[in-house]
Amino acid sequence: MTKFLFLAIFFLARSLAMMMAAGSPGFAEDHGAPTRVVVLGTGNPSADPDRWGPAVAVVVNDRAYLIDCGPGVVRRAAAAERNGIAALKAKELKIVFITHLHSDHTLGYPDLIFSPWVLGRTEALEAYGPHGLKNMTSHVEKAWVEDVRVRRRGLEQANATGYKVNVHEIEPGVVYRDDNVTVTAFPVKHGIWKEAYGYTFQTHDRKIVLSGDTSPTDEVVKACDGCDLLLHEVFNPHGEELKDAHWKEYFAMFHTSPAELGEIARRAHPKLLVLYHQSLEKLPESDLVEQMGKEYSGNWVSARDLGVY
Ligand SMILES: [Zn+2]
Ligand SMILES: [Zn+2]
User: Fold this and answer.
1) What local confidence, expressed as pLDDT, does residue 32 receive?
2) With 245 labelled, which of 49, 87, 182, 271 sits at a CA distance of 20 to 30 A?
3) How would you classify residue 111: left for phi > 0, otherwise alpha for psi between -120 and 50, otherwise beta?
4) Which ligand lies nearest the alpha carbon of 278?
């Protein structure tokens, strides 16, 4: 009986060792946890308390890559951290890709520069975006110069590096690469903005495309091309405002309707389409959702603040 037990343990131990040995190359090739996309804010300029400023985080392993920084971005990241995403801790916010310089997408920029520093970030913020970002950054730095002096020289003894920004004004193409991700910028059509970008994030397990703000463009179709996740902006054309000719023209030039998005998605064939930065035009979300359902029969979802996709 003892001998049987000994043999059983021996064979069990041996097969475990073999499994681990066989598995180890697999572990070496494994680049970590599944990539998550956290929509920190789905809002737009309307002061809707349920929809904070536009900001998205692509979270790969222990790092967060932000796209846009609308109002409240650092607090929204803290809310996501409370929901269990440690990479979104304030002092870990170190890199942002800005789609364009519209105020609703950038009002959280000073927040992203200064709050994580006050909370202990020692690295400079790396900020990627269109031309004009350097100018915006230097104005923000000047606006808070006295704050920086007091925090550094006074009793707070804030560090001498974490409030700095390295600005990278980009061109279309690969703009960033590290062990987790390759980020490619592509131009989109946002009315009279000279430069507006969408971004593609290629990680170890997912290809994620964000439209930024745009009217329908082939660039999104090309960038996605069967991608795992396409986050695309959309507006509700039933809005009262759109009865006004100049608003109708504005939305046609700057944004994408459900019918247009249906067409884009059919050509881009994402595995999942996520409606984000929805312009609800004072109508319930269900009104937009109903229209989208008629226009597109693939997999899609309308993003909520702090939703993870
Ligand atoms: Zn915009
Ligand atoms: Zn916008």
Assistant:
1) 84
2) 49
3) alpha
4) 2
Q: Which CATH class for the 34-129+131-169 domain?
A: alpha beta
**Cα–ligand 2 centroid distance for 105 (angstroms):** 6
Of 5, 96, 12, which Cα lies nearest the Cα of 54? 96
SS (HEC) of 29-55: HCCCCCCEEEEEECCCCCCCCCCCCCE
pLDDT tens column, 114-131: 999 999 999 999 999 999
Residue extents of the structural domains in the chain: 34-129+131-169, 171-303
- The model's pTM is 0.90
The yes-or-no verdict on residue 199 having pLDDT over 80 is yes
Residue range 226-245: mean pLDDT, rounded: 96
Ligand 1 centroid–CA 205 distance in Å is 30
Give, as residue ranges, everything with CB less than 5 Å from ion ligand 1: 102, 213
Residue 102 CA to ligand 2 centre (angstroms): 7
User: Which of 3.60.15.10, 3.40.50.2000, 3.20.20.80, 3.90.226.10 would CATH assign to domain 171-303?
Assistant: 3.60.15.10
Q: What is residue 21's predicted lDDT score, i.e. its pLDDT?
A: 44
- 109 and 69 Cβ atoms separated by less than 8 Å: yes
162 CA distance to ligand 2 middle (Å): 28
